## 1
Amino acid sequence: MTTSTIDPTARKVPPLGGMNLTVLRIELMRMLRNRRTIIFTLVLPAALMLSFGGQAGWDDPVGSGNVGAYILLSMALYGAALTAAAGGSMVALERALGWSRQLRLTPLHPVAYIMMKTFVALVMGALAIGAVNLIGILQGKAEMPEHIWIAGAALGLVCTLTFAALGVFVGYVVPGENAMQILGPGLALLSFLGGLFIPLSQYAHAVRLIAYWTPMYGVAEVVRSPLTHELPWYAVVNAVGWFALFVAGAAWRMSKDTARV
């Protein structure tokens, strides 16, 4: 009787580390079935846009548009950031349920897993941006050229990568459902400090000095720059620096987590 042995090195690695359309579709459907996600993605940003609408000074000029356009870009960024962070933080719940451990026993590469989370976060962020822009169009109060409208939406989507990375990082640090309980209020506070809800010119000098160091300040300036035509160099450094920091933190925690198997 002869026995055959299987050479482990002969095992083929799946293309793209195991990332495929089927898994992406499952991830997206799982997010869209979550009522809390729908509230964060569509209802909350649109409600904020409606609540700010029609106030005094809405038609005052700002750059190539008006205050309404300035607020629209800000609310779209907030909604996308909150949604992307929520999508990234789902790794905390998956770790608590043991799902991430099961995935590590499959050929799915950890990098492919994070890439899928990032893609899902971008899709959900795009829905949030679309919801706010739709409300802005229906209101008819936001005024800016079409190319600026498109550029602001595109930059907002790119900047959501920062908060998707933040969500993944927090998801690997904080256990279970506590991740979003920290991210929700935390992002709201960062938005106030970063000048997303209230212009920094209305803050005291000491508060402004703190705001320049917060994660929301840089991305907010980047997203609104096509409208305002102003983009300080330190805002770009802020945006790039926080993105790199959150990605590094997420990669570090992911490597620590995967090393346990």
Note: The longest helix spans residues 110-139.
## 2
Amino acid sequence: MTTAPPTRAIHVGRQPVYDRFGDVVGYELLFRSSADAVSATSRNAFATSQVIVSAFTEFGLGQLVGDRPCFVNLTREFLVGDLPVPFDPGQTVLEVLETVTVDDKVYAGVRDLVERGYTIALDDFRLDETGVRLLPMATYVKLDMVDNDTETLTSTVGRLRGQPGLTLVAERIESEERLALAFELGFELFQGHVLGRAHVISGRGLSPSAIRRLDLLTTLTANEIDLRKVVALVTTDPALSFRLLRATNSAASGLRQKVGSIRDAIVLLGLHRVREWVALMVVSDVSEATEDQLAAVLIRARLCQTVAEHLDLPPESGFTVGLLSGVADLIDQSIAEVAHHLPLTADVAAALIRGEGRLGEVLATVHSYERVDLGALGQAPVDSGELAQAYLSALGWSTQTLTSLGDNRRIS
């Protein structure tokens, strides 16, 4: 089986947007291929997919931008519906790139997004047929302070002032002189190197399985969706499980309920929204491969599930506790930090953060077994012989899962 590291580096560029008082009032999220990248190497659908998946399901939108608006560039594929916008309307501003040709299909797609409640920004706006056509649907209009001369900027701003409800953003401000001009022309918002360069936020994310993504996407597009199969496919993929839990907690999801299992997260998000996220992850993770290094996480999750069931606790909650503790180890974060960004029920959160409650006892038992802590195992609520049998069963299940992925890859 071809293997890959269990984690991968993730990067998102974040450039601040300022108001006339010099306060940061929002951020633009940008594709960056590395921690030291100073500009985007790509502005295609792959780049946009990476930004969206990383921002919402790896870092968490709250961690990146707090409660401020964020601007996300969209390519044609997202505007016309070939790729989904998988988050609800909220603090995210959808930015139509200047490279998009505004034909009838793009116009209809943008109109549909506005009717669904999304906020639209027009990037690098120009007073031509293409720009003017989308103007009535825009809330923000961004003008390039480098490529436009003073006469063009003055004329364009004058024309835009006749359009009600517009917020004008001066972008690519790279000198004090252009900043002064932007203030003189009456722009409301400001963005550019003279104020603040894009800062690359980096972290570690789980390497996903492209094969399982495709399998799950096929299941989600069937005429009759089998929820049990969807849950089974998600729970055997730690990366996807973690991302969907994060998606339920994103500021734009509109959900305020807590979840105690992966199944709860899928039901709360809804199969349609899960399908959109998975479709986007297939694009975002196109270069990633499967790996058997995730076996330890799967074994721990399965073992916690079995112990929870033995103690008459919800087995799904046991699986989630084991899964997330393993994910925290893989991405080198404290379990408290991981749990803080997830919409977990009180008993699951207490077990993970403080080791409290009966689920905390489940996790402690499994940790003791993994460390071969005979003293602690002597006080465990499950007999050591039963634990050994449960471990072998979990080992067999994880091996079968990973082998199946390897077989699928060889067939494909």
Note: The domain at 207-411 is CATH 1.10.3210 (Hypothetical protein af1432).
## 3
Amino acid sequence: MIAVYLFILLVIVQRFVELLIANRNAKWIKSQGGYEAGKEHYKYIVGLHVLFFVSLLIEVTVTKHTFMLWSIFPLGVFLLAQLGRVWALSSLGRFWNTRIMILPGAKVIAKGPYRYLRHPNYAIVIAEIACLPLIFQAYWTAIVFTILNAVTLSTRIQVEERALEEATNYHKTFEKRKRFIPTYDK
């Protein structure tokens, strides 16, 4: 059981490190004349992620679970998502953020996983929220938070795309790419 808690704690620490990176990047974007879009819904995203981890910890504590061979599949997907996360973050560099940070006139980055998808980072978050609980047979957390995440992301993506289209070359860069289905054009 200690290994389960340590694994989840490691993921939580990773999220805190990402928040530090995001805050540093936000300060840089603002210093370049950028601004935040969609402030009003950001608190719901933060709340969703906090409650996700609370729910996960509660469910793994009160539910008797044993290692099941099929748990290797969600673990594998989760670990691949971590590689994708690093790829997405490093591809965006200073433009990566947990908030919707807009730098007017900036050229949208279309390298790394963004070469194939409009929103690879959100695809990664979807995979993580669905798979992390399944590793530990936390079925209720997986189901409830996958649904809540879908609702939250539907708003988030619309706000983000609208803000990027108004202030950058987003539409021209991504007009032939799907949100979550990989496509490639030169």
Note: The helical segments are 2-31, 39-62, 72-92, 120-135, 139-167, 170-174.
## 4
Amino acid sequence: MVSQYEEAGVNIHAGEAAVQDIKEIVNQTHDENVLHGLGGFGAEYELTGLMGQYQQPVLISGTDGVGTKLMLAIAADKHETIGIDLVAMCANDVLAQGAKPLFFLDYLGLGSLDPQRVTTVVKGIAEGCRQAGLSLIGGEMAEMPGIYKNDDYDLSGFAVGLADKAALLGAEKVQAGDVLIGLSSSGIHSNGYSLVRKIVADAKLDLNHTYATLTQPLIDELLTPTTLYYHSVYPLVQAGQLHAAANITGGGLADNLGRMIPDELTAEIDATSWQVPAIFNFLQEQGQISEDEMRQVFNMGIGMVLVVPASEVEQVTTTLTQQTTPFQVIGKVVNRREQPVEYAN
């Protein structure tokens, strides 16, 4: 017998089945500090064993979503990696302030609950948590057919990290002479997709076609998951080799790196120092977008910038090379010119 709640569009049994399916996936991300994850009214994470490592412990948190990249995943029925994007949007922000990632919570709102699709999405979130050093300890899943239509869904996440107050990264540590090291992005990451979708629509691009300058179908280029930088960057934080870091999201290099530059200094960027990935050149050509707007909207191939004291550059670049982390020295910090961030060419 179908209940009135199911007639209203909410399937409680499907929700229970989805929770059972994802429990083991979630448990695999847990570390020894997780007391209780799924099943309670709130997740529990113990800090006792961590406190002795910090003289002045500071919790750092970040929350975000995936943006309209999610619309492409839904339209293409490709949900395997969108959860990685969700984690990255939160975790890379927390990492950029010098925090050790602790735990992650997610929220999934749906129009119609398909347990298999939910499991696929959560597998991606769990994979993102593994890449980010986070325990996935809880979340919320809500079927809301009055808000979301048919197969539509939305994602948001919340990450928490821990740092010693004296070791926090930020603008107050940045000095003239610091060197800017750019860590390569995997592509567009998760920002600028409203413009991406407009270009696709206006130019009548075929998402399933592999265009001449690309190495895979356009939809796969566009859904390439965001790079998580934890394993590359946190060892440098622990070694005290960074002054600041900037996660390059919406607003591009100028807006995001600009947050880390004091009023009396300027970050001078050499735009010729790295090769812009083909997907950006393709979108720029297809959409007839100016260089200035491309730089304002997209990361253009640099997903995170490390602000490194000149004395630490050799060791940092050696470590990144040993990690096989793709990077490039992209500029330096100089005395203030007109803007916090300026391109040398």
Note: The longest strand covers residues 153-164.
